[in-house]
Design a protein that fits this description.
The chain is mainly β and 285 residues long. It has one helix at residues 3-19; strands at residues 40-48, 56-62, 67-73, 76-81, 87-94, 99-106, 109-114, 119-124, 131-133, 138-141, 152-158, 163-168, 174-179, 208-211, 218-222, 227-231, 237-242, 257-262, 268-272, 276-282.
Length: 285
């Protein structure tokens, strides 16, 4: 083991000891750790998910049941999946419009973001749910600029701070946070951790977002630039995963990456239009 690898391992071990058994790190986004995206390689994929049909848009991992949930934006639906990309069931979404992102909140509560309606919806999805109606959901309105096809593209939960992260695709690019409301809100209280339009981190659009639980770092996905970028919560880049051919074990580039999430073992999941699913894992030393 090289001295650099040894130092990184000692730093990681110390952080995990401080975090305790829950895996929730209290050190926050300035703890100096990194997810280390450059060390990730493809271990599965592309896997076609025929149940999604087209327009795969977002992913979330439910830590309580060990399943993935993929949302599509046309037709609007949620596909419950195993971590190897096998669909278990399809939940239809009625009246939500252009659903682009999904995040597991707790228990049977999930959040989905709707680009055309510029809103986040809280929905209840249990083992028997077959259809979710917009009229029965809790709507949280967001004011992030004109509503068009360059609006809300990704959604993630920060479980440590109990807030959502959302990204706007472009014109302008935007990274925002808002509280996890439990009621209907016309205009959510938004914060902007960094100006993604003025400081784009060498990406031309934002297609997805994920909040890494242990470090507090933000992973942003760019469809046009074909990469995942790990940032601090103030937008400083820490690592990058390229999604191009001959990178990270990919034989061909991921054609249209739209959503990402991670599980408790650190595996990275990415979905791509129209109906593709990929798994990446960190190289073993």
């Amino acid at each position: 083991m090289t001295p650099g690898n040894l130092a990184r391992r000692l730093t990681t071990t110390l952080a995990l000891l401080l975090c305790g058994c829950s895996g929730v790190c209290p050190l926050g986004p300035s703890d100096g750790l990194s997810v280390g995206l450059a060390d990730y390689v493809l271990t599965l994929g592309p896997v076609k998910v025929p149940e999604i049909r087209r327009n795969a848009s977002g992913l979330t991992f439910n830590r309580e049941n060990g399943l993935l949930y993929m949302v599509s934006n046309g037709p609007s639906a949620i596909v419950e999946m195993t971590t190897d990309g096998k669909a278990r069931r399809v939940i239809r979404l009625r009246g939500f419009g252009d659903t682009e992102g999904i995040a597991h909140v707790r228990g049977t509560t999930y959040a989905v973001c709707a680009e055309g309606r510029s809103a986040v919806y809280l929905v209840e999805l249990d083992e028997k749910t077959e259809v979710l109606q917009e009229a029965e959901a809790t709507r949280i309105g967001l004011e992030v600029g004109p509503v068009d096809n360059n609006g809300l593209e990704g959604l993630a939960l920060d479980p440590n701070a109990q807030r959502f992260w959302v990204v706007r695709e472009k014109k302008p690019r935007g990274v925002y946070t808002l509280p996890v409301y439990d009621r209907v809100v016309e205009h959510a209280e938004l914060a902007q951790p960094w100006d993604a339009q003025r400081h784009p981190r060498a990406v031309t659009d934002l297609a997805g977002v994920y909040l890494h639980r242990a470090t507090g770092h933000v992973l942003v996905l760019s469809q046009e630039s074909g990469c995942v970028v790990e940032c601090t919560q103030r937008g400083r880049e820490l690592s990058r995963l390229m999604l191009q051919a001959a990178s990270a074990g990919l034989e061909q580039k991921i054609p249209h990456p739209e959503g990402l999430t991670m599980d408790e073992q650190g595996r990275l999941y990415i979905c791509s239009e129209p109906d593709l699913f990929y798994v990446f894992e960190k190289r073993r030393e």
